[in-house]
Amino acid sequence: MALVKFPTRSVNTDAVNPFVNNVFDSLFTDSFISDRLVTRVPAVNIVETDAAFELELAAPGLKKEDFTINVDKNLITITAEKKTASENGDKSYSKREFNYNSFSRSFTLPDVVNYNNIDANYVDGVLLVKIGKKEDAIVTKRSIEVM
Questions:
Q1: Whether the predicted pLDDT of 16 surpasses 70
Q2: Rounded Cα gap, residues 12 and 66, in angstroms
Q3: Which of 5, 15, 91, 137 has the most neighbouring CB atoms within 10 Å?
Q4: Is residue 54 helix, strand or coil?
C-alpha cells in the first residue's frame, strides 16, 4: 500500500470562481517550471541474479559517450554530463539559452563483487551496468531431501 498526497482545495474558493483556481493550479504545477527548478536524477533498478548484480538507470536522451563509470574501492559512481547550446547563425539574437544536464549516482558494492567483471551497455535510454560476482560467492542450486 502506498500513501499518496493529493492537493487540498477549499470548498469556498472553488464555489466562488473555479476557473481562476484551475488556472493558478496549472501554472504552479506546470512541468516547464518544475523542470527548471528540480534537479533530475535517473531512476534505478537493482537486480541480483545468481552470477551478477545489474544496475539499470533510466537516462533517455543521452549518448554512451556522455557517461563516466568509476570504481573506487567498494564504491561505483555513475555520472553523465550533456551540454547543448541552441545556436543561431546570424548572431543577432536577443536571447540564447544553454541547456546543461548532469547527474551523479553512487552505489556501495558488496564484498562478493568481482571487480574485473564489470560491463556497461546503453540501449534505448537505459544504461545497464552488469557487475559480476566472485566464483566462490556464486551459490549453486541443489535439492535437499527431507528425511
A1: no
A2: 51
A3: 137
A4: strand
